[in-house]
Amino acid sequence: MPYTALFLISFIFILSMDVFNQLAYLIGSPGWGLGLLLLLNIISVICLFVISRVYGWKNKVPAFGILIVQAYWFWSFVTVLRGISDENDYWDWKFLIVGYLPSVLISLTLFVGVNIDKCHNLFHFILRRIFLFSILVVPIAMNYSEELYARFVMPICLFVLLIPYLPLRWRYLVGGVALISMFMDVTYRANVIRLLIPMALVVTYFFKFIVNKILLNVTLATLFGTPLLLLALGLSGGFNVFSDNMIDYQKETVSAGQVGESNIGDDTRTFLYREIIYSMMKKNSSFIVGEGASAGYETDFFADAILNDKGRTRSEVGFLNTLLYSGGVGVIAYALILFIPAYYGINKSKNYLAKMMGIFLAWRWIVFYLEDIAQFDMNFFVLWLMIGMCLSNKFREMTDSDLKVYFSKPIPKYFRGGLNGS
């Protein structure tokens, strides 16, 4: 079996985990469910690890890009060691092995993006199989869980950015899938945001003659500073972006086969920030290095979810989880993981797709303060794929014309074996 098949296998297994998790939420998880998920997880990690060893990133990524990723891995390793030293019971070990470790190992997906010349079949499989047949998932989603469809077509946020480079018939497919995913459940706010931003970015492609690097870099800096400013205002009591908004939109939703109502403007985040920050202060925890990979926080809202004396092990906000486990150092490491590839995509590329990806990665910094829980799932598979692409010298050397050929034909001859014939 050629090693390039591992790109496709890892994707299929991670997607299968997402679908299984969603179905388990609907109908209940069988006794062998956890074992199956662990098996799929392990096989996916092995595939990604083999890809990293066989294809690697030597001479394919800027040295500083490698340094940033290695720093992220190093601090994650330190966080794991601190978690191990503080393990008390079965639940601590379970979260460390099933929760935190996989959320770090998904970063190996960046090697898929770095070696874009080897994963042409992956892109075509997603486009011509997953998206094309996703219509079969619609009836199930409408009757049992509207979120299921969005989970199934999670890579759509990347493919919206590819619209200008696709043949016309596939543009219609991607556009249709994106609209169904977004309007299937508009109260799934993270998904709506994940799609609205690529849609806005792809519009700029048709006006790229007036979009210069200065404008893109100002946008990059603005996206970096906005959540920090809002966080400071929220902590000081000056302005709470979650509660002081004017959005009031009630919609009927379907979840676990039950019909209910949800308001897209509901504040579901303020109490999480309050609980985790107060919990860390109460325990005199370090906001610089966090509490380690097996940390938990005291909660009144989720008292039923507490499994040991550490409290609840994870919240619904990526920033808060990172602050809890690895502190401000972990937050800075994650910021660099997003903004350094974004910088390369915007300033060191010959194609506009890399520039759009750079802005999208910077936008994920804002989403990080709203949701974006680090997990071994398709959401982060796509994120790390984009990170790898923006770091990839080969991808950034490609022109818009090269990309149109790459995405429009089965396997162009000059892509077989690599862009440089290697």
Architecture blueprint of SSEs:
Layout: H1 5-27, H2 33-54, H3 63-85, H4 90-105, H5 110-114, H6 120-131, H7 138-143, H8 147-152, H9 156-161, H10 168-184, H11 189-205, H12 213-236, E1 250-255, E2 258-263, H13 270-282, H14 318-347, H15 352-367, H16 378-391, H17 393-397, H18 400-408
Antiparallel strand pairs: 1-2
Helix percent reads 55-70%
Alpha-carbon distance between the termini?
19 Å
How many extended strands?
A: 2
Shape: globular
Q: Tally the helices: what do you get? A: 18
Instruction: Please give the radius of gyration in angstroms.
Output: 21 Å
The chain-level mean pLDDT equals 88
How is the largest sheet built, in terms of strand order?
1-2
- Oligomerization state: single chain
Proportion of beta-strand residues:
under 5%
| SSE arrangement, N to C | HHHHHHHHHHHHEEHHHHHH
Q: How would you classify the helix and strand content by structural class?
A: mainly alpha
Biggest sheet descriptor: 2 strands, antiparallel
Q: Low-confidence runs (pLDDT<50, min 5 residues)?
A: 253-260, 412-422
Written account of the structure:
This protein has helices at 5-27, 33-54, 63-85, 90-105, 110-114, 120-131, 138-143, 147-152, 156-161, 168-184, 189-205, 213-236, 270-282, 318-347, 352-367, 378-391, 393-397, 400-408; strands spanning 250-255, 258-263. It has 422 residues and is mainly alpha-helical. Residues 253-260 and 412-422 have low confidence and may be disordered. The protein has 18 helices and two strands. A hairpin with a 2-residue loop joins β1 and β2 (258-263). α1 packs antiparallel against α2 (33-54).
